[in-house]
Amino acid sequence: MDLVYLYCHGERYNPPGASVSDPLLVLGSGESFTPQDVSGWSQLYDWPDPHWRDRPPLVVLNACHSGASLATTLADFVGVFTQTAGAAGVIATEVALEQKVAGLAMETFLTELVIPRISVGEAMRRMRWTLLKRGNLMGLAYSPYCAADLLLWPATTLQHRADEALSLDPWSYARP
Question: Where is the CHAT domain (predicted)?
Answer without folding.
Answer: 2-135
